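Translate structure to sequence.
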C-alpha cells in the first residue's frame, strides 16, 4: 500500500499583525489584566475576534441597545498557561439577572408582566395621602404586617370590580419574594381550567403543580368565586389545597368580588343548579379559618 506523506505546514507569522494588536487599547488592558505579554500569545486570532466582538459594546448604554448576536453576551479571554476564549455576560445583563433573582421564589405565577416589579414600597407615596381610616391604607398596613411576619392569618379581600384588590396583592407578593420567601400567585379561574386539562394529559405536571401550591409558604388565590363551580373544582382541587394549608397554618390571601356569604351561596350550586350546601360549607370553613374578611371599597380604577 502506498504511504501517504504530508508536507509540514510552516507557519509564517506576520510581525506587523502582532504589533498592531499590541497597540490596541482594549488589548493592552486585557493583557495587563491577564498579566501576560503579547509575545506569550500563540493564537492571535483569538485576540482579533475578541477585539471585533468587544467593539460592538462601545458606547452601549443598556441591554435594549445590545448589538451582540446573543443579547448581553460577549467574548471574554482567559489565560491558564495558554489563552482561550469563552462567552461572558456583560455588566448590564448581570445587573438584570440580579434584579430579577427574586422571581425564582415565585413557584406559580399569573402576575402580568407590567406588574412584575410592583412592591408595597411603591404604594407608600399614595398611602401618605390617605386618611387613617381609609380602607386602602388599612389594607396596606395589614399586608405590610403579614409580609413582615407579624401576622400568620391571611385576608379574604372582597369588594367590587376594579378597586385594586389584585393590584395590592401583587405588590404584597413581590415584596415577600424580595424578602427571600417563596410564594404563588394563582388566578383561580385559569388555574382550575389548566388543572382540569392537565389531569388527563400530564399526571406528573399535575401532581407537581398541586404539590407546589399546597406547600408554598405564601399563596394568593385571586378572584375566587369567578369560576364555574363543579364538583371537581370545589370538592377536589380547592378543598384539597385549602384543607392541607389549614392543617399546616400556611398563609393564604384571597381576593373576590363576592363577600363571604355570597361566596358560600355561589359555591353551593353547580351549573345544573344542584345544591350541595354541606360541600360549600366545608370549603368555606377552610377559607374562614385561613383568612379574616376585609372589605375594600373605592372607585373602579380599571379605565383610569
Ligand atoms: P380588582 O382586582 O379589585 O378588580 P385591580 O387590582 O385589577 O382591581 O385594579 C384595576 C386596575 O386599576 C388595574 O389595571 C390596576 O393596575 C389599576 N390599579 C389598581 N390599584 C391601583 C393603584 N393603587 N395605583 C395605580 N393603579 C392601580
Ligand atoms: Mg382582581
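Result:
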Amino acid at each position: 500500500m502506498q504511504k501517504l506523506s504530508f508536507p509540514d505546514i510552516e507557519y509564517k507569522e506576520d510581525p506587523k499583525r502582532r504589533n498592531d494588536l499590541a497597540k490596541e487599547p482594549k488589548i493592552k488592558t486585557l493583557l495587563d489584566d491577564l498579566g501576560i505579554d503579547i509575545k506569550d500569545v500563540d493564537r492571535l486570532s483569538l485576540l482579533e475576534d475578541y477585539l471585533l466582538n468587544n467593539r460592538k459594546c462601545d458606547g452601549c448604554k443598556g441591554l435594549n441597545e445590545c448589538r451582540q448576536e446573543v443579547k448581553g453576551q460577549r467574548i471574554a479571554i482567559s489565560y491558564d498557561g495558554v489563552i482561550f476564549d469563552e462567552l461572558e455576560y456583560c455588566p448590564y445583563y448581570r445587573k438584570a439577572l440580579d434584579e430579577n433573582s427574586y422571581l425564582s421564589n415565585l413557584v406559580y405565577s399569573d402576575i402580568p408582566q407590567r406588574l412584575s416589579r410592583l412592591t408595597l414600597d411603591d404604594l407608600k407615596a399614595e398611602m401618605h395621602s390617605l386618611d387613617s381610616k381609609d380602607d386602602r391604607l388599612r389594607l396596606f398596613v395589614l399586608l405590610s404586617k403579614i409580609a413582615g411576619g407579624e401576622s400568620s392569618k391571611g385576608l379574604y379581600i372582597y369588594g367590587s370590580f376594579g378597586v385594586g384588590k389584585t393590584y395590592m396583592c401583587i405588590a404584597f407578593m413581590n415584596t415577600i419574594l424580595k424578602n427571600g420567601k417563596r410564594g404563588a400567585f394563582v388566578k383561580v379561574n385559569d388555574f382550575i381550567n389548566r388543572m382540569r386539562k392537565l389531569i388527563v394529559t400530564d399526571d406528573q405536571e399535575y401532581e407537581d403543580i398541586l404539590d407546589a401550591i399546597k406547600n408554598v409558604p405564601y399563596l394568593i388565590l385571586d378572584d375566587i368565586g369567578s369560576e364555574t363551580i363543579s364538583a371537581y373544582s370545589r370538592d377536589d382541587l380547592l378543598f384539597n389545597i385549602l384543607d392541607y394549608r389549614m392543617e399546616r397554618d400556611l398563609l393564604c390571601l384571597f381576593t373576590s368580588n363576592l363577600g363571604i356569604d355570597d361566596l358560600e351561596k355561589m359555591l353551593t350550586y353547580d351549573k345544573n343548579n344542584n345544591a350541595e350546601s354541606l360541600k360549600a360549607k366545608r370549603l368555606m370553613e377552610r377559607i374562614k379559618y385561613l383568612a379574616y374578611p376585609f372589605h375594600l371599597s373605592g372607585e373602579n380604577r380599571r379605565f383610569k
